[in-house]
Amino acid sequence: QVQLVESGGGLVQAGGSLRLSCAASGRTFSSYAMGWFRQAPGKEREFVAAIRWTRGITYYADSVKGRVTISGDNAKNTVYLQMNSLKPEDTAVYYCAADTTNNPALIQTMGRYDHWGQGTQVTVSS
Q: How far is residue 1 CA from its own chain's centroid?
């Protein structure tokens, strides 16, 4: 059984930075893409960023573009999310996800991914 484990969340002041990490544990698997989503209280889970391992193509939501960088190591099934210039509206639970089946769904959609982490809380104070 594969588990994705996120870490790095916490409380930070507006304008600060956090680096989230996601690592796969359990049996080894290969992923075609990994992504980050977030869910604020009372809101739907939304796309934040993703990386497609082929050619290292990255994708970002407009709300975080320029402030967030996704990176990772495909061989280690590890992905990171560097978040800078954080805003109170970035407060949410952040989830890591992996596509291990090369799902044709859009990389920005939840349906693309078949493995999910439990989430890590990010709180940005004003």
A: 20
